[in-house]
């Protein structure tokens, strides 16, 4: 996969955001690679995020694209 300079900068900003959020509150990273997505990772991500929001839990739920 070849990235443009802008795509790389956006990826870096996303990683910096994830790092900042994980320092401020508990965090969960869910794999979002090809195999994990095929295995249902996005459904897990959506359900976990919705459950944390419904319980007012200050948890950062992020995706790890590998």
Instruction: Write down the secondary-structure element order.
Output: HEHHE
pLDDT averaged over residues: 89
Spatial shape: flat
- Class of secondary structure makeup: alpha+beta
Low-confidence stretches: none
Strand order of the largest sheet: 1-2
Tally of alpha and pi helices:
3
Helix content: 55-70%
The span between the termini is 12 Å
Radius of gyration: 13 Å
Instruction: Note the main sheet.
Output: 2 strands, parallel
Strand composition percent = 15-25%
- The total of beta strands comes to 2
Features:
single chain; 66 residues; alpha+beta; 3 helices; 59% helix; 15% strand
Helix and strand layout, with pairings?
Layout: H1 5-24, E1 27-31, H2 34-38, H3 41-54, E2 60-64
Parallel strand pairs: 1-2
Folded structure, characterized:
The protein is 59% helix and 15% strand. It is of the alpha+beta class and 66 residues long. A two-stranded parallel ribbon has the order 1-2. The protein starts with a helix and ends with a strand.
Brief rundown of the structure:
The protein is α+β, with helices and mostly antiparallel strands and about 70 residues long.
């Amino acid at each position: 996969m070849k990235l443009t300079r802008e795509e790389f900068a956006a990826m870096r900003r996303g990683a910096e955001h994830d790092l900042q959020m994980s320092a401020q509150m508990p965090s969960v990273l869910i794999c979002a690679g090809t195999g994990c997505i095929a295995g249902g990772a996005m459904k897990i991500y959506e359900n976990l995020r919705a459950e944390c929001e419904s319980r007012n839990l200050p948890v950062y739920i992020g995706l790890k694209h590998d």
